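Ticket 4471: requesting a sanity check on a complex prediction with 6-O-phosphono-alpha-D-glucopyranose. Repro inputs:
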Amino acid sequence: MTMLSVRTSHEIQDSVEALLPQLVKDRVASRLAAKDASLWGKKAALEAVQRLGWANPFPSSRPLLEPIAELRGTLKERGIKRIILAGTGGSTLASEVAARAAGVELAVIDSTDPGMLADTLTDLETTLMIVASKSGSTLEMDVAFRVFSDAIEQAGLKLSEHVVVITDPGSPLEQLANKHRLLMFTADPTVGGRFSALAAFGLVPTGLAGVDVDRVLTEAMDAQAEFILDNPENPALILGAALAGQHPQRNKLVIHDDTACLPGFSAWIEQLVAESTGKQGLGLVPTVQIGSSANEDSIERTDDVLHVYLHGANTTLPEEAGPSVTVSGSLAAQFIVWEYAVAVACRIIGVNPFDQPDVEASKQAAQNLLAGEPNSTHNERGATDGPVSVAAYGSWIDHSKITGLESAIEALREVATERSYVAINVFTDRNSHRDVAAPLQQTITDIFHRPTAFGWGPRFLHSTGQAHKGGPAEGIFIHVLARSVNDITVPGLNHTGGEQLAAQATGDARVLAERGRPVVMIKVDDPAVGLPYIVDKLKAIQAAA
Ligand SMILES: O=P(O)(O)OC[C@H]1O[C@H](O)[C@H](O)[C@@H](O)[C@@H]1O
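Returned structure tokens:
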């Protein structure tokens, strides 16, 4: 019997109870466990047929334990003290949260920001980079690998002693690994990135960093035994029904981490929910409340919001007010219950859980910008406000009205509705500027009184970015581009890290605007000066409101 529990509040109880008999009758749980690709309709079945390995990941994951343990021993002998995980989205998020929850060091580089890239270049002799990418072609992974491998070679060190690769069979990264004779873990191609917490992408980096991955798999397997039963008590069915039971009316999740037991866990849930459900104008928009002090009372109590409370195992659960679902259990059990529940939610909503059709548009827009696409027809230059510039993208506003931060926020408030959510996405070196940027989320919530998603760019592009562009058209966007001052060249590419980051921010803002979303772009020359300025100015706007 697993220690995982799912509790629903009375506001959503009826819709959960209405759905459960049908989910049981349709044998959704046992069909998931049996990898039945027809659960999401005919069209989705074409993809689902090769994407259901996660439903029973144990046969392909267990054999990884021995090589992970062996390599960990070898790395110790070689004097490796720091492990950097390079990649993004599903290839890094599970490892990042599992390492954090276990209190072991694992540095993640999932950005093109020059400052974050430069951080990889210290203590090379004692550093290992794990390069992780399912497709083997993602920009962030490629850029980090190029910068790091060049430095390793310049330092006269052996690449094969400082780089380990995780990728799908046949990917371009596999070819690169073979060319350089790098140690490689081949991933199970039937497990998609965001469903890979209990597969190579989630286990190898954490295991090498020192997490007890044997225990993780054992706990997950024990928990899974309950999730595969066609039974109305099945926590995965209850969670799936709770998430999607009042969709499309209730389509925004406000997620609260248990910062003591599962710190940062919701960053992984955010990607799973946003990319799996947020498409065709449908789906659930996750907004994660960062920090334990997040003030949920400043969000209006409207019937489009569901609060999600996450707790570790053996926690005494507080009474939550308002429409909510509370999930408690170990990280391992939560990984698998969320994978099952989101797959169930996608069946209820009527979308294919395994594609992310709108992510590509921003990648393409960034590439077009780097290839010298002329400036957009919209006025993207914007107005100067102290050390920052502010511009609106899209045709939702007369651009001459934007004279600075205050007018931009005012304009966004004018278009906000009682169903809006706000997304503030900051493209910067999050290791250096985390603390200064942190108050932005609460300040924006206090101004708009709406659920507010906070994203680090470019990482959110591989996560909430899908729902922002493809999900419900209810988002209002503030992008902040605050790249590090000292740029970095990327060996073999024509563009610096800073140029890549700027193109990713601008490209995404353009795509959002083309899709009719209101967007404000704030550009900062020096993050150390510009970010505190934005925070102070927004606080003043909020105080005056
Ligand atoms: O593992 P990779 O192929 O590098 O992909 C990393 C991430 O990139 C994409 O943009 C997808 O939207 C994500 O679902 C994926 O997890």
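Notes from triage: Residues 87-91, 133-135, 138, 141, 193-194, 275, 356, 359, 462 surround 6-O-phosphono-alpha-D-glucopyranose (CB under 6 Å). Leaving this open until the requester confirms.
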